[in-house]
Amino acid sequence: MTETAERWVPPDADVAELRRAARDCRGCELWEPATQVVFSAGDVDAALMLIGEQPGDVEDREGIPFVGPAGRLLQRAVEDAGLARDELYVTNAVKHFRFTLRGKRRIHQTPQVSHVLACQPWLAAEIRNVRPELIVVLGATAARSVLGAGFRVTKSRGTVLEAETLVGPARVLATMHPSAVLRLRGEEHDRAYADLVADLHTAGEALRRTS
């Protein structure tokens, strides 16, 4: 039976303490086949927080979020949008890699709702610690965790919203996950990448207007 991570999240902990505590999390079954927990990276005082779905194969092996193919695409998009990666805080809604084995390959599987709910206490603690001025949710899983099951990225993509989130009212912008851009080819890929860059640029402009 899936529970949540709440009892593993230390109260009043900073991000470094949360990261250490997450190594022992047994809030859902994903910890067992995964190599390790993949918590977060970046500036713990960042004005902009980016939240993805879950670590992938490369992230699971290295223990750092967004260092695989999707992460490299995100890094390029961040730079093209005029943002500095070292000034961002990046994390995922789910902290362990969910996969199925196909021969020796580990194939990504979308986290279930139960996995998203199990990890929400970690994500809520991160948001409360970092206190970003703006949250960017990358894809449907991150949006579901932060904004609830009824939110649709396709309907609200690229718009800065004043929204009710899992930690209360906050400014949020939703966009595609970079892995979704990677799966496209040709003109579709180019358009999706341009949209991702434009959304990240919108996020940066929104921060500049309030700084």
TrEMBL record:
Keywords: 4Fe-4S, DNA damage, DNA repair, Hydrolase, Iron, Iron-sulfur, Metal-binding
A matching Pfam family: UDG
Gene3D superfamilies: Uracil-DNA glycosylase-like domain
SMART domains, per the entry: UDG (SM00986), UreE_C (SM00987)
Xref: CDD domains: UDG-F4_TTUDGA_SPO1dp_like
Family the entry assigns: Belongs to the uracil-DNA glycosylase (UDG) superfamily. Type 4 (UDGa) family.
Annotated Uracil-DNA glycosylase-like domain residues: 39-201
Origin: domain of life: Bacteria
Iron-sulfur keyword on record: yes
Xref: PANTHER family: TYPE-4 URACIL-DNA GLYCOSYLASE, TYPE-5 URACIL-DNA GLYCOSYLASE
Organism field: Microlunatus ginsengisoli
Name under which the protein is recorded: Type-4 uracil-DNA glycosylase
